């Protein structure tokens, strides 16, 4: 794995790899079939502190660089993309507060995670996917409270989160400048969750609706100022996209690993199929694409750590890694031949897991718009 990481992260990487081999990789096969959320696996991960990697050091976190975290997250994704998505989505839920929240809010979400909780980010609605500004959820000021009403959908960690960062309209007359961001803790009256989505892939990740029915929250739950919610959400997604690229890269790496292992074992025409140049060229192209995606992820995260503009690089990382994850997974199936199409073998799962990385955190079509706008101007 060609990330340049700290010695501390190298030690952690060895631990994460061992944990994933012993507690995640094989165990998740059963949950991929049942679609259940594997609480016992996450409980073990929480014991190791793997769910809290993105908590800043000043709030009690490990103090790792983003590139350090990427190496660890990719290792999780190699074992199971749904597992890595759950971990990463918790960091996503925290990002709006870290970007624009008060010190008290930042400490609160950090404490909730360090205590074993997860976060969730609630932006998408049934009528507002790529057009996130079309959301209908409202927040009405009532004295020293806000009352929230609406429905969010496809929320990762929705049913298992300890807190939610939720966008809601506070002034319908102002369009996107009338959207605000709120921090809502689980258990707040009026907040409920829907059924877990029966998904094609990343089936060890919980995805459901989050419903708000006269959900009263204190005015102090406002993140930033009224009208800043859409801007906060876009800044959040600018960061989050790179992490999705990281997980997609892990899927691709798993495809390479499985294709090589199988190619060395499968004998045809008196020799391992991996000895055929046609398949060697496939492996070479898989490696080229995967390593390019990995380095784009590392570059975007390095720019974040340095405080440099990174929106274009983050979009490239997510878009490219999502696309090549599908390509590499497909080629891994091809190396396996007919067996690759069977659920008895591991590679068919990879293409099911990979597809969502061309869709969520902004579809890859949206990423291309973001990239184009950054290159040629609006």
Automatic annotation (TrEMBL):
Stretch forming the signal peptide: none
Gene Ontology molecular function terms on file: flavin adenine dinucleotide binding; short-chain fatty acyl-CoA dehydrogenase activity
Matches recorded under InterPro entries: Acyl-CoA_DH_CS (IPR006089), Acyl-CoA_Oxase/DH_mid-dom (IPR006091), Acyl-CoA_Oxase/DH_mid-dom_sf (IPR046373), AcylCo_DH-like_C (IPR036250), AcylCo_DH/oxidase_C (IPR009075), AcylCoA_DH/ox_N (IPR013786), AcylCoA_DH/ox_N_sf (IPR037069), AcylCoA_DH/oxidase_NM_dom_sf (IPR009100)
Co-factor(s): FAD
Superkingdom of the source species: Bacteria
Acyl-CoA oxidase/dehydrogenase middle domain sequence ranges: 120-215
Domain Acyl-CoA dehydrogenase/oxidase C-terminal: 227-375
Residue ranges constituting the Acyl-CoA dehydrogenase/oxidase N-terminal domain according to the UniProt record: 6-113
EC number per UniProt: 1.3.8.1
Enzyme superclass (EC): oxidoreductase
Keyword vocabulary terms for this entry: FAD, Flavoprotein, Oxidoreductase
PANTHER family: ACYL-COA DEHYDROGENASE, ISOVALERYL-COA DEHYDROGENASE, MITOCHONDRIAL-RELATED
Family to which this protein belongs: Belongs to the acyl-CoA dehydrogenase family.
Protein name: Butyryl-CoA dehydrogenase
Source species of the chain: Fusobacterium gonidiaformans 3-1-5R
